[in-house]
Amino acid sequence: MFPIVHTRQLSDAVFEMGVLAPAIAAKVKAGQFLILRVAEGGERIPLTFSDWSAEDDWIRFIFMRVGKTTHQLSHMGVGDSLADVVGPLGVPTHTEGVGRVAVVGGGVGAAVAYPVARAMCEAGAEVTVILGARNKDLLILEDEFRALPLKDLVITTDDGSAGRKDLVTAPLKELCEAGALDHAMAIGPAIMMKFCAATTRDFGVPTTVSLNPIMVDGTGMCGACRVSVGGETKFGCVDGPDFDGHAVDFEELMSRQRVYVEEERLSDAEYHLECSCHT
Ligand SMILES: Cc1cc2nc3c(=O)[nH]c(=O)nc-3n(C[C@H](O)[C@H](O)[C@H](O)COP(=O)(O)OP(=O)(O)OC[C@H]3O[C@@H](n4cnc5c(N)ncnc54)[C@H](O)[C@@H]3O)c2cc1C
Ligand code: FES
User: Fold this and answer.
1) Secondary element (H or E) of residue 69
2) Nearest ligand to the CA atom of 270
3) What integer pLDDT is reported at residue 133 of this predicted model?
4) Which residues pair with 186 in a beta bridge?
5) In testing the pocket of ligand 2, which one of 221, 229, 257 has its CB within 8 Å of the most ligand atoms?
6) What's 86-148 look like in SS3?
7) 66 alpha carbon to ligand 1 midpoint, in Å?
8) Considering the domain 2-89 in this protein, what is its CATH number?
9) pTM higher than the cut 0.90
10) Other Cβ atoms within 10 Å of 149 Cβ, number
11) Given 19, 125, 170, 279, which residue has the most CB atoms within 10 angstroms?
12) pLDDT tier at 254 (50, 70, 90 boundaries)?
């Protein structure tokens, strides 16, 4: 069992949780993920490490409440325990020698962008973070990003309620046009990563994306997370989650992400009948 030692609600549907997991905390690197089960017999869901402390034995992750399991998780608190947590999984993000880099975090992707930007700063990179959200209430971790030694932090919202009224691709394009980037990293919804990669491609700026295909075992055995990169089949869980954004087949990724939509809708609807909060 993995005791929950920290919870924080970051926005209406986004939550941070910390659990005691000494063996995992000792090994995590930026960009890696875990797979957890809330209870015995429950669904296994992948979430990315947002922070950790090897000294104090804890790991943290940030999740958006989108379906049954994340809803169950949002009702758990300090004193409860998770049935299991497996990790760290996946290949760590390449953070050494990236030079002048833009790290783009869209929505809950900011949770993954934070440890990546921090690791790049620690490795001596010149890091500009571009944080995007639909509106001000959905922006997360702004204070944490401001505490990093960034070159710049640019905030965009679709409705202009915070920062620039723009999509993240607008400031990204400006940096490319100014010749100010050696590298870009985009983390967020597949559609956002697709357009970030399309933006940088014209300028020849190498771009890494952190993919989130459906995952089941997380060990390269089941094939659920397969993605096409440069015409080759790769497994998101063991070859990724980071890939060359200019080579990823995003249409296939988005289509495979929707494979279980009907089952997910039914499972969520059933759970709403059981759950007292009805949110
Ligand atoms: C490597 C990786 C890292 C991720 N990191 C984060 C994170 O840090 N924070 C966060 O909020 N979300 C993250 N996700 C997405 C997260 O796993 C899903 O939101 C979660 O599984 C939804 O489960 P659910 O039962 O609440 O919702 P469901 O109703 O079951 O699903 C809602 C949507 O979530 C996605 N999803 C569902 N099951 C899985 C699965 N087994 N694997 C991948 N995606 C799934 C699908 O797109 C689905 O349409 C990550 C996904 C991957 C693959
Ligand atoms: S999740 Fe099964 S092979 Fe990647």
Assistant:
1) helix 68-74
2) 1
3) 93
4) 104, 209
5) 221
6) EEEECCCCCCCCCCEEEEEEEHHHHHHHHHHHHHHHHCCCEEEEEEEECCHHHCCCHHHHHCC
7) 8
8) 2.40.30.10
9) yes
10) 9
11) 19
12) confident
